[in-house]
Design goal:
By secondary structure, this protein is an alpha/beta fold. Helices cover 34% and strands 26% of the residues. A hairpin with a 4-residue loop joins strand 2 and strand 3. It starts with a strand and ends with a helix.
Length: 249
């Protein structure tokens, strides 16, 4: 077993995805496996799905595991539950995972994980200064980097924007729910980025999540004064970053 191979798992509001990751290259070395996130999203049901997924990818459970999870996580404990069951709040996810697996495990906020993958494997120039990573999915996850170093557990998708929390109007699920054209979505997302820019003045925004593959459809309608690029790892950033976070822990 190579020490550079780690099982990365990314828990999302609609899907739980995982693969073996070669962290030296930042690439998946098995096909991505995905299970539907249980409807009730309780600790028991989600952990059961995580175990099932891990067993499918690595039946002998021989690889260390990095888990990205949709919660503010401090010392292994879940502090928030925006898109999962509220019973997660106060649960020690690190201990719960350690009880399920004999191999070493680590846990991290899912957006922090995805951002780590994008920053760690990017050019040296992009590591300089302040960079904001946003993952646009069922909600909006965020991570902030200063000279390549992660500021953990930011929640920029939950800031007040145009009268409500931002993810209710400019997440990918909001785009679908509101039946927005790519032009309208691009303009509204651009306004949100302008708002964040006035608060943080980052050098660069990186947009992740599945919608990152559609970047060319909405990017032309955003303000050109703001530097924005899609995630280079696309929707695999969370898996790769969860594995990387375990390596860096």
């Amino acid at each position: 077993m190579s020490e550079s191979v780690i099982l990365g798992i990314d828990v999302g509001a609609t899907g739980i995805k995982g693969a073996l990751v070669d962290i030296a290259r930042g690439e998946l070395i098995t096909e991505r496996t995905k299970l539907k996130t249980p409807d009730n999203k309780t600790p028991e049901t989600i952990l059961s799905s995580v175990v099932e997924l891990a067993n499918r990818i690595s039946p002998d459970r021989s690889y260390p595991i990095g888990l990205g999870f949709p919660s503010v996580i401090i010392d292994g404990v879940c502090m928030t539950a925006a898109n999962i069951d509220k019973s997660w709040i106060g649960q020690n996810l690190q201990s719960m995972m350690s009880d399920k697996f004999t191999s070493p495990v680590s846990v991290i906020n899912d957006a922090d994980a995805a951002g780590l993958a994008e920053i760690h494997y990017c050019s040296a120039a992009e590591k300089e200064g302040k960079v904001i990573f946003l993952t646009l999915g069922s909600g909006i996850g965020s991570s902030i980097f200063i000279d390549g170093k992660l500021v953990t557990n930011t929640e920029l998708g939950h800031i007040l924007f145009e009268g409500d929390i931002a993810e209710r109007s400019v997440s990918n699920s909001a785009r679908k729910r509101r039946d927005l054209s790519w032009e309208d979505f691009g303009r509204e997302l651009g306004e949100y980025l302008l708002y964040l820019n006035r608060l943080f003045y980052p050098k660069l925004f990186i947009l992740g999540g599945g919608i990152s593959k559609k970047h060319a459809l909405y990017a032309p309608y955003m303000d050109p004064s703001i530097a924005v690029r899609p995630a280079k790892k696309y929707n695999n950033s969370g898996i790769i970053g969860a594995a990387l976070a375990h390596h860096l822990a």
